[in-house]
Amino acid sequence: DAKTTQPPSMDCAEGRAANLPCNHSTISGNEYVYWYRQIHSQGPQYIIHGLKNNETNEMASLIITEDRKSSTLILPHATLRDTAVYYCIVRVADKGSGYQKVTFGTGTKLQVIP
Amino acid sequence: DSGVTQTPKHLITATGQRVTLRCSPRSGDLSVYWYQQSLDQGLQFLIQYYNGEERAKGNILERFSAQQFPDLHSELNLSSLELGDSALYFCASSVGSRNEQFFGPGTRLTVL
């Protein structure tokens, strides 16, 4: 898996958009960008993933640069419940049964401030 | 609720002992992953199984072992426990080997 780089921490005002960056300059052509978050010692929660097009779901939007070397997770209207550690990982995604070692890294600790 | 269950929720034991952590994946998921998270540390990947077979190995100690049974539940066995083994242990499951993972609530292991 390609390595990712994320800022260790960020603050965001409640109600504002939270933009979390991730660098993955060594990403391969068949690797997707995945985002997870972990709220205070709970099990990590899947948020979104994408290959090269921007993606949106009910939780967030994912913007991937054209060269795919970086991406941004956007929480459009951050709430206090969005305070968590956000992990960006890159990995191959298909329904195969092959070898897949997943590395989560240390993520970005997002603090939403009232 | 992710659909992944882990038991027990908490476990307190002494150094040198052996424990077994259990994970039941989401219905239909063939792949199970185990992770260790020590205090203020990131998630460390331990091992992955797919349909009963070991598929990937991470930083898993020789004192630790795992298996996935025919009904797809998985167990992580930790032996000769040391103080440093105290951590949260998470299990995750996914449909295939390379899809998004759904995590259980974790087992908090305390070694005294």
Q: Could you name the key traits of this structure?
A:
heterodimer, A: 114 residues, mainly beta, five-stranded mixed β-sheet, four-stranded antiparallel β-sheet, 0% helix, B: 112 residues, seven-stranded mixed β-sheet, 51% strand
Helix content of chain B: under 10%
Hey, which two chains have the biggest interface? A-B, 28 and 32 residues
CA-CA gap between termini of chain B: 31 Å
Q: Give the structural class of chain A.
A: mainly beta
Total helical elements of chain B: 0
Large-scale geometry of chain B: globular
Average residue-wise pLDDT of chain A: 89
The helix/strand series of chain A, from N terminus to C terminus, equals EEEEEEEEE
Number of helices, where a helix is a run of at least 4 consecutive DSSP H or I residues of chain A: 0
Query: Which regions of chain B contain 5 or more consecutive residues with pLDDT less than 50?
Result: none
What does this protein look like?
The complex is a heterodimer of chains A (114) and B (112). By secondary structure, chain A is mainly β. In chain A, 0% of the residues lie in helices and 46% in strands. Chain A has no helices and nine strands. In chain A, the strands form two sheets. A five-stranded mixed sheet of chain A has the order 1-9-8-3-4, with no helix packed on it. Chain A has a four-stranded antiparallel sheet with strand order 2-7-6-5, with no helix packed on it. Chain B is mainly beta and 112 residues long. Chain B has strands spanning 5-7, 10-13, 19-24, 31-37, 44-50, 53-57, 64-68, 74-78, 87-94, 102-103, 107-111. In chain B, the strands form two sheets. In chain B, strands 2, 4, 5, 6, 9, 10 and 11 form a seven-stranded mixed sheet that branches. Chain B has a four-stranded antiparallel sheet with strand order 1-3-8-7, with no helix packed on it. Chain B is globular, with a radius of gyration of 13 Å. Chains A and B meet through strand 3, strand 4 and strand 8 of A and strand 4, strand 5, strand 6, strand 9 and strand 10 of B.
